[in-house]
Amino acid sequence: MIFENRTAAARQLATALSEYRSKNPLVLAIPRGAVPMAKIIADELNGEFDVVLVRKLGAPGNPEFAVGSVDESGWVYVADYAERVGASKEYIKKEVARQLETIRQRRNEYTPVRPPIDPAGRIVIVVDDGLATGSTMISALHALRAKNPAELICAVPVAPPDTVEKVSDHADRVVCLSSPLNFQAVAQFYREFPQVTDEEVIALLSAERHPSTR
After folding, report:
1. What is the DSSP string of 100-152?
2. Which CATH class is domain 6-52+116-208?
3. What is the pTM of this model?
4. Neighbours of 64 (CB within 10 A)
5. Nearest alpha-carbon partner for 46 in 15, 21, 77
């Protein structure tokens, strides 16, 4: 399955998640690519929209290849293959510190005047534009599970079968529209896959009303 763009993928995900419409789900995006998608899904489901801040730990010499991830609390997930690709414990420690600083900067930029929306007791849907290793999604799900949601759902357009299986251990449900065996990168499953900028993220979050104003 090839998606025209993130908007088309988000609309298809919203259809797959239609049972949650009007149940006030909290739809959380993993920035930055998934942010416009989560906004569309939240609007379609009459829910709320926010971000969950996690960062991948990039491999030495190949920062796009995840060897793990870290969430906003500092919890670290390290993939079982990390050392085989050169990510020593010392390297991981430095990479964690670097990515935590990025998380802190993004929190200050993205939601400077309000705290994150509390997921406790809520149906929580975590959205990304696709999963490769699943590392960042695992960190996001771990961070949210600790906050006691009523139901925790991973929703993505595309991911390889082994990643879907791995992520399933951390969510109550995984909604994945396409799970191809021949998977090299998320971008190969989109005709249009532009970068989402921090400015776009900030604009979308600024437009989202705080729950107390709803």
Report:
1. HHHHHHHHHHHSTTSPPPP-TTSEEEEE-S--SS-HHHHHHHHHHHTT--SEE
2. alpha beta
3. 0.91
4. 9
5. 21
Q: Angle 169-116-148 (CA atoms, 0-180°, nearest 5)?
A: 40
Q: Which burial class, exposed, middle or buried, applies to 75 when counting CB atoms under 10 A from its CB (0-12, 13-18, 19+)?
A: middle
Look at residue 210 in the predicted model and tell me its pLDDT. 46
Longest dimension (CA), the chain: 50
- CA-closest candidate to residue 125, choices 172, 56, 165: 172
Taking residue 178's Cβ as centre, other Cβ atoms within 10 Å add up to 17
Q: At what angle do helices 89-110 and 198-207 cross, to 10 degrees?
A: 50
Domains of the chain, by residue range, sit at: 6-52+116-208, 56-109
Q: Which residues 6+ apart lie within 8 Å of 152 measured at CB? A: 124, 126, 141, 144, 145, 170, 171, 172, 173
CATH superfamily of 56-109: PRTase-like (3.30.1310.20)
Residue 68's pLDDT is what?
95
SS3 track for 39-61: HHHHHHCCCEEEECCEEEEEECC
Between the ranges 16-20, 62-66, 70-74, where is the mean pLDDT highest?
16-20
